[in-house]
Structures are given as C-alpha cells and as structure tokens.
Amino acid sequence: MKHYSSISELHRTNGYPLPENPLMSMVTCDHNASCTLRQDAFTTDFYMIGFKKLKSGTFRYGRTKYDHDNGCLSFVKPRQVIELRDIALEDNGFLLFFHEDMLNGHALHAAIKKYGFFDYEANEALYLSPKEEQVIWELYRKIETEYHNNQDEYSRDIILTHIDSILKYSQRFYKRQFINRATLTGRIVSRFNDILAAYFEKGDLQQKGLPTVKFMASELNLSSRYLSDLLKQETGKTALELIHIFLISEAKNLLMGADTTVAEIAYALGFDNPPYFSRLFKKEVGVTPNQFKRQNVYEPSDV
After folding, report:
1. Domains of the chain: residue spans and CATH
2. Could you tell me which residue ranges the HTH araC/xylS-type domain spans (predicted)?
C-alpha cells in the first residue's frame, strides 16, 4: 500500500499543481471535474477534511465504504487508510490537506486530539444542512484566500485558526446530528444493553473476560469513538461507563448470595484482578463490595 509522507508527493502522483505551501494544500472540485486520487488505497502523514456530494463513485475510509449522495464532511487523520475511486460530484466539493508537522508549536497540535470525529468511520460522516454548508464554505474560502496570498509570518496562525473554526463548528453540528437521530440512538442504546446481557448470559465474561468498547462497537457496526460520543449525548455516559454500570448491577445481585466471596464474584464477572473490581465497585456505589455485602446480607436492618 502506498504511503505519502509529503503532500507534494501526493500532488505529483495525481497530476495536481504543486502546493503553494509544502505542509498544506487545497483541492476545490466542481460537478464537471473529477475529484479523485489515482492511488486506490493509501495512507499519509497528514490530516484531510473533505466535503462532497457524491453523484457516483466510491470513497473508502478504513474498511468502510461510503456512497451516500448527501453533502457531508469527512475527517481523516494521519496513517488511516483512504481510498477514493471514480468520484463524480453532484455539486462543488473540496479536499483540504494539512501535514501533522504544520501543527508543531501551535495550540491545535494538542487541541485536534479532542475532536473525536477523526476516529469515526466514513459512514459516520457529518451530514450538513444548507446553512451549515454555508458556514463551512465561508471558512474554506477564508483559508483559500490566505493560502493564495503571499504567505508571511502570520499566515500559518491565520490558516490554523480557520481550520480550528471548521473543527469547532463540526463538533457543534455533530451534536445536532446526534439529537436529530435520537430515535436511532435510542435503538442503539437498547441494542447495546441487549448485547451486554447476552454476553453475560452466555458465560462470555468468564471465557473471554470483560467486554471492551471495541467489541461492543464491532457488534453494532460502529467505530468505538462514534459509539461513545453517541451514547454520551443520549445517556450522559460513555460506552465504557455503561459497561461498568452493567457489571456493577450484576455484582450487586451476586453479592446478595451469602456463600459467594468478593473474589469469586470478581472472577465470575470477568475481572482478572479482584482489587480492581473492588475499586471500581466503590467508585460506582460508594462502599466496598464487602461493606455492601454486610449491609445487605448480614445486617438487612441497616440498609
């Protein structure tokens, strides 16, 4: 698989004019022009923000095929597999590339890691309303103006500030998307709990250990980050927190049995380390498992 360490190399391969800045480039496409890349599948050392309304063609990000015809923003981080093939656009689109080295020494170097959508899959892209499209295009044009100006010591900061604005607005728009898809989210919460219950009932806790967020996301055909963000919006809890809540609920039930020890319950719930189970239990319940057991089994009048 081809890996591009420089944006100039990507441009040369695809016959684009060399970028005016070696650490970033902008490709603006219209419905009459192909907005594609000759390399079927590749990785890079740079970030990509893409806006598109597909008329035809395939955009593959990771192992997920994207073929939706609505206007959307997608976000790709360094060393993630990308594939664009035979893309034809329904309307104008753009590809914005910026190398990870461009962020060195800038606040965005740390801040960009908080934007979880860089870990989403392509089918979890951000679908924009017409007003939201307008906001993104206005910011893109501001970057474009600065990019084509004679660049000076202020250029990088101005460009990165506009990129950060795109990311901030995208975060806001994703919140809207989660809210608008509340019915879908509710079904995912229910399926999430059903998968946990089935995992417990089949004895997978003892055989496979604690279920991971990655496992739960795979069962739901979602990326781990998207699942956690979606659940956080709907329930106020991340996927990992919901897994813990489920396990603690089961632990409370098992602790009611007078003949079971805390260690036995920890192992039954898939914990390899009983002290870790005890710390988690106390964090969620406010008392240790032994204290909970004494209160509810031996001294019920104290409950």
Report:
1. 2-180 (2.60.120), 183-302 (1.10.10.60)
2. 194-295
